[in-house]
Amino acid sequence: MSKPISVFNGELGKIAKNMIETMYSAPGIGLAANQIGLNIRLATLDLSVGEDPAQLIVICNPEIVTSEGEQKSEEGCLSIPEFTDKVVRPCKMIIKGQNIHGEELKIEATELLARCFSHEIDHLDGILFIDRLSSLKKTLIRNKIKKLAKAGEW
Ligand SMILES: [Zn+2]
């Protein structure tokens, strides 16, 4: 569980910038601060992966206000490279939080953006996408990772 952010200073801005660069170079559409080893509730999202500046979202303390429907599609994670699986996520969500200056943000997210928000908020709560799969699938993936790690390939 990542800790809420209460101080909105230049240091936070630097962390966010670092996260955006990490997300773009991965490349990925979302990153949570705990993926780069920082236990704070900060996430960056950009469905355009840097192509369209208007799509960049930097959000502190994101919270799901409402959540509707279900969508199921293939999902991966920068923290679990090479593994993807179908995950059920909400279709539409309203998210609130703060921007990097501590000002209130309210975002309506649908489709892929809703999936991305759900995935990143899960990270902040210590949940990985494989935790949302059946226990059989989760065990299979864990065993594959163990095997790869043993072979020095993970
Ligand atoms: Zn992830």
Number of strands: 7
Please report the distance between the alpha carbons of the first and last residues: 25 Å
Instruction: Please write the string of helix (H) and strand (E) elements.
Output: HEEEEEEEHH
- Gyration radius over CA: 16 Å
Bound molecules: zinc ion
- Structure classification: alpha+beta
Question: Considering DSSP H and I runs of 4 or more, what fraction of the residues is helical?
Answer: 25-40%
- What is the residue-averaged pLDDT? 96
What does this entry look like structurally?
The model has no long low-confidence stretch (mean pLDDT 96). This protein is α+β, with helices and mostly antiparallel strands. It has helices at 10-25, 111-124, 135-150, and strands at residues 30-32, 42-45, 57-68, 71-76, 84-89, 92-98, 104-110. The longest helix is centred in the first third of the chain and has 16 residues, at 10-25. Strand 4 and strand 5 form a beta hairpin. It is globular. The chain has a five-stranded antiparallel sheet. Strands 4-5 form a two-stranded antiparallel ribbon.
Annotation keywords:
binds zinc ion, alpha+beta, 5-stranded antiparallel beta sheet, globular, single chain
Map the helices and strands.
Elements: H1 10-25, E1 30-32, E2 42-45, E3 57-68, E4 71-76, E5 84-89, E6 92-98, E7 104-110, H2 111-124, H3 135-150
Antiparallel strand pairs: 1-2, 2-3, 3-6, 4-5, 6-7
Zinc ion binds next to helix 2.
